[in-house]
């Protein structure tokens, strides 16, 4: 056993040092008496966490101090939040109660801590509880936004200090972070925190790619800095000559955003041109902001030619999260596109610190998109019907997307997420307008309900009193508001139909001499694989179950004991988990003969030995092995964390695994032949299928092959890249079955 020696005296000094750094960080917001409050909170936290340590071995108190420091320094929050951040874990982890907090710090602090305690991890239960937990967190938005801001600071610090956590925890925290926390930070305008959260998640979920891009970025650092210096030199001079005070500098893009670009355009790192953006931050007087930003724009575009399609004016119409800036892309001196962002100091503070900074300047901004957004969240949460998982899906979609601006016939401006349809617009105007919508005129032309709106469209809605919401509308609306309204109206409809079904069923059972009681109804529902008795009534009313089926039921010997579906699920998951743990290791070894565990490789990502993988317990198909960078992984891990098992490959030479390669190149008559020769003759690899598309001299092929492991695959890719005419070879995850977990 390793002996750990702890120098308590040195630790005490370190704690005080960190505490003083926190005070310095919060100095700008401190008012009379605030320092005493913070000291009191610090003493209380120190005392109650005194015997606790973090996974790294450090004193626990480092964590609340760091969270408070992030809240003050990186989000710009004030004393109340600092106090709450210092105390955010005490109610959950120590003997202190909410009553103690309220007695010492008053109602407001107690309310926020209560919110923070409620939304802390209920991770080991089941999916709906997990989603419910997220929902609770969002509910606090309506109550006091500071709860979420402190929660984000807490998550950021945990992500920064995650290296000592076990691997499955790292994966779980990372996937939750990209799934919900980063989009939330984005929506609240905390761009710096959002980028860091995404980068940290990627570091754990896709370590190899992360390191690869990081190394590549470093290699070219000196060259890039020289380029930036040369690029901004003439701009700086002209700004000075025109007496505009500004900071001009280059800012690297995050690793995650570079990776996104590579995936989206399927290009290698070398072809990503915007590895950085140029920022011009003007020090303007309040009434000069807009005109000075445009002056700077004019200076930049006098020097470099702008791309006419890439001008974004978020000063005239700020984003819903409060973001204001002028973006343009210009042609640099070496024939390379460069993005330039122009904004004032005030705008920049809002862009970096988001919500809190926004509040400080509230008087200055006339129209606050953020206020409207929070209002919308409140509305969505008020809808008590919606299923927690569905709600989360809808909500998340609205977190991610950018906005478009649409005009009403009278010229009023309506903000919608991009990809919104004419029907979304109708629901945005009023839910009755949406429910009775039969078509729309966009820029005076008649379009269908599903028409996707473009920025700047003017829309007029056509309604009919005979119209009612239809099931297929759900396939194309994107706003959470429209979805919720359509669902609740369909549900109401279904409820009415079910009423009739209930009467019919009662009569039918009577004729079969089956007693009509809740026990039998539940057995029947289970027999027909329906979730609720209401579904049973509905199916009877719609004629989907008739007398004949009921007789079969009666005759069937499988009079199964009624058991709710989710209970069966939970039991199956538990027993599978037990059988893995019984093998005195909680890691599933793939390919191990001794372990008679039922597992299969997931079809959505086709893992092969060497890939980073995890096991996911499904209800009917045993354990599925996914790659940690599978398109489905994030959702599985964040919503069904209790079903995740650690998995590792064992040595296995003979087996072959199916994987897909995408090959692009210059079309050439002999190309396919050359490729198949390399694959099957040179490498002895079996090909399962080839699909080839060729268009205007460009060749694009997808080839499914059987390989042994990642090493084998890498060699094959390297060799294929050497074939003349081939420009790129990449592995792909087959696009099918990206969807719900089963
Ligand atoms: Mn914490």
TrEMBL record:
PROSITE patterns (UniProt xref): HD (PS51831), TGS (PS51880)
Superkingdom, natural source: Bacteria
Membrane-spanning intervals of the chain: none
InterPro entries: ACT-like_dom_sf, ACT_dom, Beta-grasp_dom_sf, HD/PDEase_dom, HD_domain, NT_sf, RelA/Spo_fam, RelA/SpoT_AH_RIS
A matching Pfam family: HD_4
Keywords tagged on the record: Kinase, Transferase
Residues covered by the HD domain: 60-159
Matching PANTHER family: GTP PYROPHOSPHOKINASE (PTHR21262:SF31), GUANOSINE-3',5'-BIS DIPHOSPHATE 3'-PYROPHOSPHOHYDROLASE (PTHR21262)
Biological function: In eubacteria ppGpp (guanosine 3'-diphosphate 5'-diphosphate) is a mediator of the stringent response that coordinates a variety of cellular activities in response to changes in nutritional abundance.
Protein name, per record: GTP pyrophosphokinase
Organism from which the protein derives: Mucilaginibacter yixingensis
């Amino acid at each position: 056993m390793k002996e750990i020696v702890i120098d308590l005296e040195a630790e005490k000094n370190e704690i005080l040092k960190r505490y003083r750094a926190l005070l310095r960080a919060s100095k700008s917001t401190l008012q009379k008496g605030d320092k005493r409050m913070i000291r009191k909170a610090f003493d209380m936290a120190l005392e109650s966490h005194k015997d606790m340590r973090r996974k790294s071995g450090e004193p626990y108190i480092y964590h609340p101090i760091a969270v408070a420091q992030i809240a003050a320094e990186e989000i710009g929050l004030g004393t109340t939040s600092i106090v709450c951040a210092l105390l955010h874990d005490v109610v959950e982890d120590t003997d202190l109660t909410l009553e103690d907090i309220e007695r010492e710090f008053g109602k407001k602090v107690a309310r926020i801590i209560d919110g923070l305690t409620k939304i802390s991890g209920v991770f080991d239960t089941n999916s709906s509880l997990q989603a419910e937990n997220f929902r609770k967190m969002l509910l606090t938005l309506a109550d006091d936004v500071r709860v979420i801001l402190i929660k984000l600071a807490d998550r950021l610090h945990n992500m920064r200090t995650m290296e000592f956590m076990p691997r499955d925890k790292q994966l779980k925290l990372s996937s939750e972070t990209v799934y919900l926390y980063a989009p939330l930070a984005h929506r609240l305008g905390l761009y710096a925190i959002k980028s860091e959260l995404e980068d940290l998640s990627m570091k754990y979920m896709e370590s190899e790619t992360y390191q690869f891009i990081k190394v590549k970025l470093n290699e070219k650092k000196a060259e890039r800095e020289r380029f930036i210096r040369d690029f901004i030199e003439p701009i700086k001079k002209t700004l000075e000559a025109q007496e505009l005070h500004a900071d001009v500098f280059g800012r690297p893009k995050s690793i995650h955003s570079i990776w996104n670009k590579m995936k989206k355009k399927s290009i290698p790192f070398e072809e990503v041109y915007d590895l950085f953006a140029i920022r011009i931050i003007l020090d303007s007087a309040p009434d000069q902001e807009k005109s000075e930003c445009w002056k700077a724009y004019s200076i930049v575009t006098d020097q470099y030619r702008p791309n006419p399609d890439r001008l974004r004016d978020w000063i005239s119409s700020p984003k819903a999260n409060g973001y204001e800036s002028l973006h343009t892309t210009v042609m640099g001196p070496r024939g390379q596109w460069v993005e330039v962002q122009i904004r004032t100091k005030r705008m920049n503070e809002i862009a970096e610190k988001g919500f809190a900074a926004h509040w400080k300047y509230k008087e200055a901004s006339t129209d606050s998109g953020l206020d409207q957004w929070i209002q919308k969240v409140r509305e969505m949460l008020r809808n008590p019907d919606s299923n927690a998982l569905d709600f989360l899906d809808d909500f998340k979609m609205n977190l991610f997307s950018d906005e478009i601006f649409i005009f009403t016939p009278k010229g009023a401006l309506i903000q919608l997420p991009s990809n919104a349809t004419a029907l979304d617009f109708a629901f945005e105007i009023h839910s009755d307008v949406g429910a009775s919508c039969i078509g729309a005129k966009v820029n005076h032309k008649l379009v269908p309900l599903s028409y996707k709106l473009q920025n700047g469209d003017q829309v007029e809605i056509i309604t009919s009193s005979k119209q009612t919401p239809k099931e297929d509308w759900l396939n194309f609306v994107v706003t959470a508001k429209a979805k919720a309204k359509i669902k609740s109206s369909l549900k109401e409809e279904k409820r009415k139909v079910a009423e009739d079904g209930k009467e019919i069923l009662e009569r039918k059972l009577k004729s079969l001499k089956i007693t009509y009681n809740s026990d039998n109804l539940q057995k029947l529902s289970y027999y027909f694989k329906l979730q609720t008795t209401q579904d049973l009534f509905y199916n009877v009313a719609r004629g989907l179950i008739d007398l004949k089926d009921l007789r079969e039921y009666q005759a069937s010997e499988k009079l199964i004991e009624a058991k709710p579906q989710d209970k069966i699920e939970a039991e199956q998951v538990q027993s599978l988990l037990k059988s893995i743990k019984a093998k005195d290791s909680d890691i599933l070894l793939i390919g191990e003969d001794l372990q008679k565990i039922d597992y299969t490789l997931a079809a959505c990502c086709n893992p092969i030995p060497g890939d980073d993988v995890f096991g996911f317990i499904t209800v009917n198909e045993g354990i599925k092995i996914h790659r940690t960078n599978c398109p489905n992984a994030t959702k599985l891990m964040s919503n069904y964390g209790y079903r995740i098992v650690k998995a590792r490959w064992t040595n296995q030479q003979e087996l072959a695994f199916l994987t897909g390669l995408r090959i692009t190149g210059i079309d050439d008559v002999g190309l396919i032949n050359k490729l198949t020769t390399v694959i099957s003759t040179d490498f002895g690899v079996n090909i399962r299928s080839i699909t080839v598309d060729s268009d205007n001299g460009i060749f694009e092929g997808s080839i499914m092959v059987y390989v042994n492991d990642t090493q084998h695959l890498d060699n094959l890719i390297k060799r294929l890249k050497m074939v003349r005419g081939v420009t790129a070879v990449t592995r792909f995850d087959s696009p099918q079955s990206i969807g719900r977990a089963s």
